[in-house]
């Protein structure tokens, strides 16, 4: 029992030191608090520091790799400042919680204003890509409704469908074309703000597409809980396509 307690205390000490090192605050251990069985505080501290610093480097490299996976195109826009920007972010933003999504989202605020929209687009695409599959539209249940009930049906959008207002040429962030440079992005900036839809298509592929007038009308109507019978004529065909793509994933009947 004593050995088990000692091992637990040793593990707790190692974990505490690792977290301190990961946050850049590893200090020399107190010799009076050394785990049992250690010969020398100085020698142990030397070995322990080396190990923990190795863990710390691996920890930082892992977070850097995670950011690079989420923001591949945005990081290209940083050019030669890419690695320095990531290092500065990791120096000032430690992973203090278990949610990597929240951690990487905070990277957006670290960027220049001009790049934040691109980063936000990539973060939302990552959210859409890894999201659980939405419910499948139940055609049988819809067909069993009376004509009056169908007319009062309110469609439901996939909760992992996102919308952004921007003048940035975000369509390039959803294509397989070569990554753009910042100069190319500046050249392609749109004259006025457009609405972009971010979601998932073909099962798993994340996309970003500019909404046309039919899409804009459909989204506005669904978000306003407009019954199907009152949907704008321009949106009817779009609604069918969105059901097929899984972007409209359910319905409810109004009362």
Report what the structure shows:
- The chain has helices at residues 2-22, 41-70, 72-78, 82-92, 100-110, 113-130, 139-143, 147-151, 182-188, 213-223, 236-245; strands at 153-157, 162-166, 194-201, 205-210, 248-253.
- It is mainly alpha-helical and 255 residues long.
- Among the domains are: 1-63, no CATH class; 139-253, Outer Surface Protein A, domain 3 (Alpha-Beta Complex), CATH 3.90.930.
- The strands form two sheets. It has a three-stranded antiparallel β-sheet with strand order 2-3-4, covered by helices on one side. Strands 1-5 form a two-stranded antiparallel sheet.
- Helix 1 (2-22) crosses helix 2 and helix 3 runs antiparallel to helix 6 (113-130).
- Mean pLDDT is 79; it is low at 26-41.
Shape: elongated
Structural class: mainly alpha
Q: Tell me the distance between the termini.
A: 65 Å
Average pLDDT, rounded to a whole number, is 79
CATH class category name of the domain at 139-253: Alpha Beta
Largest sheet composition? 3 strands, antiparallel
Listing every helix as H and every strand as E from the N terminus to the C terminus, the arrangement reads HHHHHHHHEEHEEHHE
Low-pLDDT residue intervals, each spanning 5 or more residues? 26-41
What is the CATH fold-level name of the domain at 139-253?
Outer Surface Protein A, domain 3
What is the spatial order of strands in the main beta sheet? 2-3-4
Integer-rounded radius of gyration? 26 Å
- Approximately what portion of the residues adopt beta-strand conformation? 5-15%
Total beta-strand segments:
5
CATH architecture of the domain at 139-253: Alpha-Beta Complex
Tally of alpha and pi helices: 11
Helix content: 40-55%
